[in-house]
Amino acid sequence: MPNFAQSIKNEITRLARREIRSQTLALRKSSAQHRKEIAELKRQAAELKTEIKRLAKLSGNGISPQKSQDDTVALRFSAKSVIAQRKRLGISANDFGKLVGVSGVTIYAWEQGRSRPRKTQIQALALVRTFGKTEARAKLGKS
């Protein structure tokens, strides 16, 4: 014959689990619903960001969409990138500086690693990165 104390303990454990399960069921359902809503909101945010980028390209007026502080943190600076972008566009450091809003000497200093651009200048570099040769020459007023 089983131990009476063990039987009581097993029954109490079974009832406690059953009660806990019934009380947490509503919480689980609402948690799952919230996760679904969050996922949907993230999808909508991503779609809206791509739509903003598409519309900014279509407008072609040189105005980039406003960036939040989170976007500026993601931008990185590389001296090799400045050199590569300048060569890709086929322009001098002085002209590249005009596009970014600094002098040609500053561009050389960035390329050689003697100095680093400020946050606003990094944003300008990111904008210039989207230019093609034709657009860069148009912004500089050359043919």
Plain-language structure description:
The chain is mainly α and about 140 residues long. It folds into 2 domains: about 1-60; about 70-140, lambda repressor-like DNA-binding domains (434 Repressor (Amino-terminal Domain), Orthogonal Bundle). The protein is about 75% helix and about 0% strand. It has helices at about 5-60, 70-75, 80-90, 95-100, 105-110, 120-130, 135-140. The longest helix is centred in the first third of the chain and has 56 residues, at about 5-60. It is elongated, with a radius of gyration of 30 Å.
Name of the top-level CATH class of the largest domain: Mainly Alpha
CATH fold-type name of the largest domain: 434 Repressor (Amino-terminal Domain)
Number of domains: 2
The termini sit apart by 101 Å
> For this structure, what is the CATH homologous superfamily of the largest domain?
lambda repressor-like DNA-binding domains
Largest sheet: none
Mean pLDDT: 86
Order of helices and strands: HHHHHHH
Topology, number of strands? 0
Helix coverage percent? over 70%
Q: Quickly give the structural class.
A: mainly alpha
The number of helical elements comes to 7
Low-confidence stretches: none
What gyration radius follows from the Cα positions, in whole Å?
A: 30 Å
Characteristic key phrases:
143 residues; 434 Repressor (Amino-terminal Domain); 0% strand; mainly alpha; 2 domains
